[in-house]
Design a protein that fits this description.
This protein has three helices and five strands, in the order H-H-E-E-E-E-E-H. Strands 1-2-5 form a three-stranded antiparallel sheet. A two-stranded antiparallel ribbon has the order 3-4. A hairpin with a 3-residue loop joins strand 1 and strand 2. Helix 1 packs across helix 2.
């Protein structure tokens, strides 16, 4: 099953901002870069980012756990790690599902 999605880059987001706000391309690129840098830094500092009507970004810590090497069948220990999570808001999910129904 193939998806009809397009990869959106930071440059494409900057172009969208330029079209919507009428600002220069350089300013829109700087705004986009600054936004992503701030989100990255806040998440890295283990802060939860809650964007109203959009969703939450946060780190979820996974402890050490047992696992199997599929190729050899050996029991291995999976090391602890942090996983980035995004949970969409109810309003965001509702709007997405409304668009799907149309």
């Amino acid at each position: 099953m193939q998806s009809n999605t397009e990869t959106i880059t930071k440059e494409k987001i900057a172009e969208m901002l330029k079209a919507n706000l009428g600002l220069s391309n350089i300013i829109c690129e700087e705004i986009t870069a600054a936004l992503f840098t701030e989100i990255f830094e806040l998440v890295k500092e283990k802060q939860k980012i809650n964007l109203k009507n959009f969703g939450k970004f946060f780190l979820n810590h996974k402890n050490t756990r047992p696992g199997f090497n599929i190729r050899t069948g050996d029991l291995v220990e999976i090391p602890p790690r942090s996983v980035l999570r995004f949970v969409p808001s109810r309003k965001f999910k509702y709007k997405i599902n409304q668009d799907v129904k149309k």
